[in-house]
Fold this protein.
Amino acid sequence: MKSDQLFDRRNDGEAARERREAKRTAANELFCQAASQAILLDLKARGVSAGDAVDLRAYWPELADQTHIRSLDFVGATGALVGAGLLESRHTGHRYELTLTEAGALAIERLDSRATPPDGRALRAQVVSALNED
């Protein structure tokens, strides 16, 4: 190492920042997946079938309380379910009034009957532990 580079700290910590950012992104995806699973389990428990319209805004606070996952994660999860083709908008004028698609009904049918809603506290502890490893 040249002596003029010895004290050059412009790139110091850049790799660590990138690792932390990757972990944050993975954490966001983990919570989105958990919230998606909670939504699907809830729709199954409510007996929602293909073609049924549901206003998910009414479910988010209850699901957030049950799972200890932020309501904001349920908004993202709803978008992910729409993007995956499991829910669709029928343009009824209500932004989050969505219809369960045939693919969504199939996904609900395939859920393990013993599946339980995710535990947000356990997920949070896992994420905090992963972020503190750096």
Summary: The chain has six helices and three strands.
